[in-house]
């Protein structure tokens, strides 16, 4: 990097902070901070939903998969996400929006204490927060790894720089700042992605390699196969099922984008836009990665540095800075939205249970608590990021694929399926049992069993077995021990209907109308 690249990078950071400061005036209470008061346009929600779904891990971990295996990086990652969101646009998006518009909650998990009970809500809240700390820690490590390639600064310095700047704008402006910065980041990413695509096409042309003829090159042997290596059919199906839940609300921050729109119909449109972006745009980003074996020799065994090395070689200064800004765009978008979501869960769902004072927070106190929680979450995730290469985590892609994919199912299944009428018989017993046994299955298949099996348990089973265990138990226990009380049935009706119905007799959570934290903790 030279002074021009640094100018682009510093200018980007300045704009992100300016947007956060501008968004500050739109935030009056926790409802504005966490769900934009339900006033976000569907198109902005859709772009924000898309941008908050992936990070610089794409340019490290998934770049390594693309370098090693080729198009399977798209077939087993972006494509199932696009399909899952498209399905969820009908199945989940309108219902998640009604959590805000009909139940008047500000956290995606806030409805669980009425849908199940307080214990279920707390179990899912705590496990979701802990998982997100690890997940976001991996994202900080990914962007710091890229930054170290370009600038030579240490991993910890990179984590501190990106984390601190993200903390400033997302703490000041809440979800509005997240969405508006993500819009700007999308534009930057568009320019950077197209620049890299064109640079690779031109370089291949200089080598006498045609756009389509590249696939016949020996270095890309097998790269055109959709399913190779550990990424087979079982992995694809498991990943599709996981992403159906994760990207429609199980990731928490994605649920907020649906909640932030004005109506269930707009939430559905938002999801459709995000699905289209996930289907089309990653192809532009992945093409240079697929071609990278023809242009660079990765220094790391997993090929995770291939994209960064190729960027340094192909782009002139200025454009190099723009692509680096694109890396930051991905990571800061996801991490800031995760921080906002976890702050919502803590201040709305956890703090009122831990503290009598928290149950009496007014609009101003709740907003201060939300901002403090955001900073604390970012700090904890940054601390985890410094340990991402330790034996406990091994590497970035392991954390993202194995931990997040493997643990998301047990957390998301009770939350997401609890919205749907066909699963109305499943109550707190089904929810807690499926959650606990899913976590136990993850630990068993990834550690004791994995260590004892020759060659280890295949990756597809490491991520699919916990999901299968949780799903089967949630459904089975619901039928064997139905807990569909009138109160729980009414909650389900409220999130499945827009018009007047018997569900209208269910009161909104106390304090929700004025932006204060709910004090209700029903048995």
From TrEMBL:
The chain crosses the membrane at residues 6-22, 74-93, 159-179, 186-205, 228-249, 270-291, 368-388, 400-420, 432-449, 461-480. GO terms for biological process: sodium ion transport. Its main location: membrane. PROSITE patterns: NA_SOLUT_SYMP_3 (PS50283). GO terms for cellular component: plasma membrane. Residues 502-523 are annotated as: Disordered. Belongs to the sodium:solute symporter (SSF) (TC 2.A.21) family. This is Na+:solute symporter.
């Amino acid at each position: 990097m030279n002074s021009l690249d640094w100018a682009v990078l510093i200018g980007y950071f300045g704009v992100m902070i300016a947007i956060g400061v501008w968004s500050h005036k739109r935030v009056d209470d926790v409802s504005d901070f966490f769900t934009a008061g339900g006033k976000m346009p569907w198109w902005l929600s859709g772009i924000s939903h898309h941008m908050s779904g992936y990070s610089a891990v794409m340019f490290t971990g998934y770049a390594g998969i693309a370098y090693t295996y080729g198009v399977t990086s798209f077939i087993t990652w972006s494509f199932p996400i696009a399909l899952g969101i498209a399905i969820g646009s009908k199945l989940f998006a309108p219902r998640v929006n009604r959590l805000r518009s009909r139940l008047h909650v500000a956290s995606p998990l806030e409805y669980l204490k009425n849908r199940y009970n307080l214990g279920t809500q707390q179990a899912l809240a705590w496990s979701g927060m802990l998982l997100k700390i690890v997940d976001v820690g991996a994202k900080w490590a990914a962007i710091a790894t890229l930054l170290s390639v370009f600038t030579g600064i240490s991993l910890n310095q990179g984590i501190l720089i990106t984390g601190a700047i993200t903390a400033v704008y997302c703490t000041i402006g809440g979800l509005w700042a997240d969405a508006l910065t993500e819009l700007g980041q999308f534009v930057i990413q568009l320019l950077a992605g197209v620049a890299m695509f064109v640079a690779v096409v031109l370089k291949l042309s200089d080598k006498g390699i045609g756009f389509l003829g590249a696939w016949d090159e020996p270095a890309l042997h097998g790269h055109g196969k959709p399913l190779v290596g550990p990424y087979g059919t079982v992995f694809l199906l498991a990943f599709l099922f996981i992403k159906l839940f994760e990207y429609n609300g199980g990731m928490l921050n994605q649920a907020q984008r649906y909640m932030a729109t004005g109506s269930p119909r707009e939430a559905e449109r938002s999801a459709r836009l995000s699905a289209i972006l996930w289907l089309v745009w990653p192809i532009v980003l992945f093409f240079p990665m697929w071609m990278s074996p023809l242009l660079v020799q990765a220094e790391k065994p997993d090929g995770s540095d291939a994209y960064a090395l190729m960027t340094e070689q192909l782009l002139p200064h200025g454009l190099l800075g723009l692509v680096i800004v694109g890396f930051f765009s991905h990571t800061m978008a996801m991490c800031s939205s995760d921080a906002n979501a976890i702050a919502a869960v803590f201040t709305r769902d956890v703090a009122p249970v831990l503290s009598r004072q928290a149950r009496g927070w007014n609009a101003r106190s709740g907003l201060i608590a939300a901002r403090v929680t955001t900073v604390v979450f970012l700090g904890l995730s940054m601390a985890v990021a410094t340990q991402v290469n330790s034996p406990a985590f091994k590497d970035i892609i392991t954390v993202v694929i194995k931990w997040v994919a493997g643990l998301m199912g047990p957390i998301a299944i009770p939350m997401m399926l609890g919205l749907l009428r066909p699963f109305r018989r499943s109550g707190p017993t089904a929810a807690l049992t499926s959650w606990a046994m899913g976590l136990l299955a993850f630990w068993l298949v990834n550690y004791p069993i994995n260590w004892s099996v020759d060659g280890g348990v295949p990756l597809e089973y490491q991520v699919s077995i916990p999901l299968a265990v949780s799903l089967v138990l949630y459904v089975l226990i619901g039928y064997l021990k139905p807990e569909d009380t009138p109160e729980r049935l009414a909650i389900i009706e409220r999130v499945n209907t827009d018009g007047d119905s018997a569900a209208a007799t269910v009161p909104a959570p106390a304090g929700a109308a004025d932006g204060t934290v709910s004090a209700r903790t029903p048995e």
